[in-house]
From TrEMBL:
Gene3D superfamilies: NAD(P)-binding Rossmann-like Domain. The keyword Oxidoreductase applies. SUPFAM superfamilies: NAD(P)-binding Rossmann-fold domains. It comes from Fodinibius salipaludis. Belongs to the short-chain dehydrogenases/reductases (SDR) family. Keywords: Oxidoreductase. This is Short-chain dehydrogenase. The keyword Oxidoreductase applies. InterPro entries: NAD(P)-bd_dom_sf, Sc_DH/Rdtase_CS, SDR_fam.
């Protein structure tokens, strides 16, 4: 598709990969609604990049339904979902609580499902759409302390494959991107502390560019899944 034809809903759009992707779409001539829980930061980001802000907590089904309905109204329909809302929680199995695991799954997996479901209903009605689920290298390989986060992202990968099989007959491309470590607020929000900027590691703009490249392929084909790694992180 042409990037200038994109009318996108970007969850987790107030910072990081979501913000960078919405900004890239808008700079290419497209339009974007960005959604997040924190309204002040959401509005500030929207003003900065020219997006439309809609507050939404993806854990809440009613808010998700309203989000998609409002996006359709604001953009006069939409044709791209960047399913990006998520967060990390990292602890060893022996320290992991049921509450912490359920919380991560509710956002990263159940929330992604509900947004994907509502978007798919609209895309089926118009017989066209694009869904990109933002997963992680943690959805391909486990690591120490990653039980909750890896479980949520492995589950997202499984859902992506199911949606792809279901939605292809409706001209809906379902894709997944798996970034390795990206220098955003992710680790700080996950309680792992801020890190100094490293020019050899990935930044949000790298993932945004990859997402736009996936979308820009002619509609007769699609890239089912791609992973993005830093070449030689030091």
């Amino acid at each position: 598709m042409e990037l200038s034809d994109i009318k996108a809903l970007v969850t987790g759009g107030s910072s990081g990969i979501g913000k960078a992707t919405a900004k890239a779409i808008i700079e290419a001539g497209g339009k974007a609604v960005i959604a997040a829980r924190g309204i002040d930061k959401l509005k500030s980001t929207a003003d900065d990049i020219g997006a439309i802000p809609i507050q939404c907590d993806v854990r809440d089904e009613k808010q998700v339904i309203n989000l998609v309905e409002d996006t359709i109204e604001e953009l006069d329909g939409f044709n791209v979902l960047i399913n990006n809302a998520g967060y990390g929680q990292f602890s060893k199995l022996t320290d992991l609580s049921e509450k912490a695991l359920k919380s991560v799954l509710q956002v990263n997996t159940v929330g992604a499902m509900m947004v994907g479901r509502e978007a798919a209903r609209h895309f089926i009605d118009q017989d066209y759409g694009n869904i990109i689920n933002v997963s992680s290298s943690a959805g391909k390989r486990g690591f120490e302390g990653g039980t909750a986060y890896c479980a949520s992202k492995f589950a997202l990968s499984g859902m992506t494959e199911c949606w792809r099989a279901e939605l292809r007959p409706h001209n809906i491309r379902v894709m997944q991107i798996n970034p390795s470590e990206v220098q955003t607020e992710f680790f700080d929000k996950a309680g792992r502390g801020g890190r100094d900027f490293n020019p050899t590691k990935l930044v949000a703009d790298d993932i945004a560019k990859a997402i736009c490249n996936m979308l820009s392929l002619h509609d007769r084909g699609f890239i089912t899944e791609t992973s993005v790694w830093a070449t030689n992180p030091q």
